[in-house]
Every structure is written in C-alpha cells, then in structure tokens.
Amino acid sequence: MSSATATAEVEADHGHPETNSGISNNKLAMWLFLASDCLLFGALISTFLLYRTNISDNTPFSSAVDDVFDIPFTSLSSFVLLMSSLTMVLALSAVNRDDERSGRIWLLTTAFLGMIFIGGQVYEFTVFATEYDLGYSTNTWTSAFYTLTGFHGVHVSVGILLLLGTVFGTRKSGLGKEKAENVELVGLYWHFVDIVWVIIFTIVYLIPIG
Amino acid sequence: MAVTEPHELAAEDEHAHDHPSDSKYVQIALLLGFLTAVEIVMFVIEDSLGATVVKLGLLILMAVKFWIVGAYFMHLKFDSKILTGLFVFGLILAIIVYFVMLSAFEFSFWNDGFVDPGLPSSES
Hints:
The structure holds two protein chains of two kinds. In chain A, about 75% of the residues lie in helices and about 0% in strands. Chain A is mainly alpha-helical. Chain A has a single domain, classed as Four Helix Bundle (Hemerythrin (Met), subunit A) (Up-down Bundle). Chain A is elongated. Chain A starts with a helix and ends with a helix. The model of chain A has no long low-confidence stretch (mean pLDDT about 85). Chain B folds into two domains: about 20-80; about 80-115. Mean pLDDT of chain B is about 80; it is low at about 10-15.
C-alpha cells in the first residue's frame, strides 16, 4: 500500500490528514489558542480580584458593590449559557451522524441562546450605567468589572459569528460528516467561553467580598 | 524515560470517537443546572452558613462544573491526553499569573507604603 493511499485512508477514517500525534493540526491549534486565552482571562480575573475592594470615596453608592448585582437575573443568563453548551454538543453529535438538518437547528439554537446571554449582558450594563451611575472609569472596580465581563461578551459574540458562519457558510457545500471537525472546533471555542463564565459567575457575582 | 510512539498516539486518538450519547449529554447538562442552583442557594443562605463555608463551597462547585464541561462537552476525557496537557498547562500559567500579580501588588504596597483606598485607614 502506497503512503498516499494510507494517508487518504487515515483522512477518511479520522476526517483529517495523518499526523504524528493522531490529532489534526487544526484541533491542536485550537487547543493552543484556548490555552493561551486562559492567560488572557487569568490576567483579567486577577486584576478584578485585586481591585474588587479598591473603591474610592467618589463611588456613587455606599453599600457593598455586590448589592448592585441582580443575582436571579444573572443566574438565569448563566443557565442559558450552560444550556447553549448542551445544544452545541447535540449539534456536533448530529453532524457526526450525518444528520445535517438537526445539526443546523442545534447550531442556530446555540447561536440564539448566545444572543440571549449577550442581550442580558447589555441590559445589565445599561442598568449599572443608568440606575447606579457606574461608568467605565467611575472607579477601579467598575473598570476591572467592565473589562472582564466585556471581554467575555466579545468572546461570546465572536462565538455567535462563528456559529452563524458555520450554518450559513455551508449552505452550498452541505454540513455533513466531513464537516464534523469544523463544528467540533467551533464547539471547543464555545465550551471554553462557557467554562470561563462558570468562573466569572462564581468569582465576580457569588463569592462575597471580605 | 518512556517515549510515546506516534502509532500509540494515533491508537489513543481512535478512542476519541467513543463520545457519550445524546441522552447522556442531556443528563450532564441537567447536572450542571442542578449545581448552578446549589450555588445560588448557597449564596442566598450565606448568613446561616458563614462566609468561609460559602466561599469554599462555591469554589468547589465551580471547579466541579469546570471539570464536567471540560471532560464531557469538550471531550477531554475521551480525547488524546496531549490536549488535556495543553489546556492544563494554560490553566496553570493563568494561576501563576494571578499569584505573580498578587505578590507584585503586595510587595509594591509594602515598599511604597501604599494604602488601599478601599479599606479604612487605621488613623481615621
């Protein structure tokens, strides 16, 4: 058997060209990106933790900063994002089964749930700005908070674009089993965004100061 | 030192396709939802549990949720260990960043006599 034939067989079996590690280069690159993204969020979360009690005297509210959070509302947003991870794995599962229609529906559902989450974040920021007069530069806490949650929101938005790009970019070529790796890569990014929120929700919203 | 041969890694990758069924994914998502509910209950009854217990409990629940999503939804439990190693390496670096920042700030506060404006001054 020639090496070209063997390579083609491996590609057909695994959906990617043969590599020494058995992992596709695209998947390895995505994991490297996610590992590096841990550093970005690590720095942002660190900054927030260092500044969370650092509130200057010009803070327009006297009570603890935690009181501005609407925990029931944010909990609902967190639940929506968690469920979007479920719809994402169901999309990948459907594509792996070559069930294109279900794959597209689950991908669109995931994007829709992501949009709900972003809508919730926009609402939260608006309430902070209008009801509590908390701007980006009001104090170091607000700067750290908006930067951390804002960066996460940007990640979710990019994820939504990737999901929509996957659905609408494959209208002609189809979303069959051969595209499973593409869906898996988008899914990895989406789940990463989800686990970052798991940390943010606990550290920023739930853990009491002091 | 044992060296992993490429064909062994490739064989390991073949097991990567043994992913959970859809119903298993739904069960995992329900478990995640339940853990989130427990977190919120802990937050609500913080006064009766005590801040230390709540903090510890929330951090444990956070770690469990993180592991569940990583292991099952991101398939780390079923994929090559190389990927787990990569991700854990990134996480460890991120944790190191936190401690480096924390220590840098602390040393800076000590050296410059910095008073955290968020904390009441001992003289006032």
